[in-house]
Amino acid sequence: MNSRKLKILAAVVDEYIRTGEPVGSKAISKLDNINVSAATIRNDMAALEQLGYLEQPHTSAGRIPTFSGYRLYIDELMNPSALSDEEKSRLDGMLGGKDTPEELLIQNAAAALTEITQCAAVVTNSVPRFSVISKVEVIPTGKRLYVILLITSNGSIKNKACRLEFDLNHEQLEFFTHYIEENLSGVSVEELSEEMFDKMVAAVSAYMVSLSPLVMGLCELSEDLRQQELTVSGSEKLLSCDELDKMEVVKFIEHKNGLSDLLEETFSGIQVKFGSETNSFAIGNSSLIVSKYRKGNKEAGSLGIIGPMRVDYKKIIPYIEYLTQKISYLMSGDDEDIIITDTNAEND
Amino acid sequence: MNSRKLKILAAVVDEYIRTGEPVGSKAISKLDNINVSAATIRNDMAALEQLGYLEQPHTSAGRIPTFSGYRLYIDELMNPSALSDEEKSRLDGMLGGKDTPEELLIQNAAAALTEITQCAAVVTNSVPRFSVISKVEVIPTGKRLYVILLITSNGSIKNKACRLEFDLNHEQLEFFTHYIEENLSGVSVEELSEEMFDKMVAAVSAYMVSLSPLVMGLCELSEDLRQQELTVSGSEKLLSCDELDKMEVVKFIEHKNGLSDLLEETFSGIQVKFGSETNSFAIGNSSLIVSKYRKGNKEAGSLGIIGPMRVDYKKIIPYIEYLTQKISYLMSGDDEDIIITDTNAEND
DNA sequence: TTTAGCACTCAAAGAGTTAGAGTGCTAAAT
DNA sequence: ATTTAGCACTCTAACTCTTTGAGTGCTAAA
Fold first, then answer.
1. What are the tens digits of pLDDT across the range B294-312?
2. From the list B126, B142, B343, which residue is nearest A345 (CB)?
3. Region at B36 (left for phi over 0; alpha for psi -120 to 50; beta for the rest)
4. Would you put residue B73 in left (φ > 0), alpha (ψ -120 to 50) or beta?
5. A220-262: per-residue pLDDT in tens?
6. What is the C-alpha to C-alpha distance for residues B299 and A178, in angstroms, rounded to an integer?
7. Gap from A21 CA to C20 C1', in Å?
């Protein structure tokens, strides 16, 4: 495995990414940085195929990269094109500044990625692990009907309506509000557990049995809180990718199962996962490129794209890297309190 | 246009729905309930073609129904197969009972329809036209940070966080809460307008300029409220329908524009619309079958399917009818006030 | 009015051909 | 010991030609 072979592998991957067609020896030999004949390249390509980096769709066709080929290319071979100052300032413009609310920052990043890469953008909105409950409210809204509201330090707002057996009088409501305020305020989202709520149900029932639905409601809300929020935007772009199976894409759009976990288990730095290699998001021939951003010194979420395996890694990876860095920088502002911007809940 | 011709038309449509192939005179003549020769049928078919109910893909092929052919079949000719008791209880099982939350009921209905018909299911979640604002709250949650909460009589809960320039003191908060309570409580969702909020901004600003973000927030929430909630599930099924143009299906999945309006303008009872005939959802050769369900005596939403024009109307229509009836029944409980069940809002 | 018979039409499927891109191998050149 | 030119070979994609058979419309008899 000499350096010329690696160079040829890189060239094949580059060409394949550029054209989408299997790449032949002749095409490679014509490239500027390759100075050997087609025959030599043919020999090397045969060797690369032997090693499992390339494959042929059929005998008389050119070569395309295998998974390992892509992997090697991404890890070692490609040389990412550094962002020009214009590109950087374009991204800066799309992203927003220090005063842009965090959620919007993430949304903007997603929009920028969709726009620039023409792929679907994936963002996770803050890993909730580090946030604490900052407010709990119980609001009477109708006959035996109460809306409970849970707000966390990182800005999540969850609400839920609960119907009780009886209406609460002022004193009872007061009692309950105090009790949960006492028990939940300042508790970190990670600490919340079903056992904890079970204890609360017990304690509250001692005072008044019919309060338990409210606690159960809180318990459900807390489960929602613990779920990472994942947004995929621009997923329609994937439908116009002919190398992706439309069926699989639509299924993915409808239920983005598993992706969240997949992102959770990601390390820091740029990560590339191939759809066909994971069972969590199984769009064949697709590729997920993500990186984590930080808030202060804590991982706060990830952001990246899903596209065909044949995406322009060279170009896209620097974009994602720049965005995560910038976001990390923007989020690590002076303010330590919540920056909330926009939230909705619908229910019938 | 004698009754034999109608019988033949019905038979052609039935056969075409069953097989998906153009139907020839011979195939019809073999059917049990047809006792004339192929030649006779040929003559009648030619006549039906003349009348615009049938057409030939090409000279030497059988006949397929035209739009008018389908229309006549659906309106007059087909005889829907009544649901067996097993089918009914199967549906009941999939749907849920009196204690199933409304939102889940609708979701279940959609899931059942996708499962049974192998088509995409369309459901709208409560036509908001009839609901009124039942509660408005402003909750301080952090430094200059307030969460506003809007609850309607049909159970929608919307919330949003707003950051103000200054913190409000108790008196100011009191004033604002009273003011909006006064102005919004009991107002029907339909009446809410931007002008109305503009006036409120003006009035409130007279008291304290920096309150206006809160009013703007309310305005945004009210816009969300006015949007009908439309869900299309199982749309991947449409991609495996070869009579539908994949491209058009994909476009439809991307933006389900117009469908909402189309459903809005539907009358009561089963409605069948052909994709190619409407410009709002323009999947050629597709068919939309919907019916409205009611809550108490008000229309509360619609539910149905989108499939190829060649769907088994005979079988599917009774299913949709049964589901809407059952849902209407389940939703028209004793309670007249809100039944809210589950609601979340997430935000950072 | 209905039916049998028959000539006619046309799409779909299969067979055969061609063109071209790309390969692997061999033998000569460096 | 590599590298290269040359060449025979392979395989797909596109095209044409032929065949097949389902289905028709028309005519004349029942």
1. 888 888 889 999 999 999 9
2. B343
3. beta
4. alpha
5. 999 888 877 788 999 889 988 988 988 889 889 888 877 887 8
6. 41
7. 15
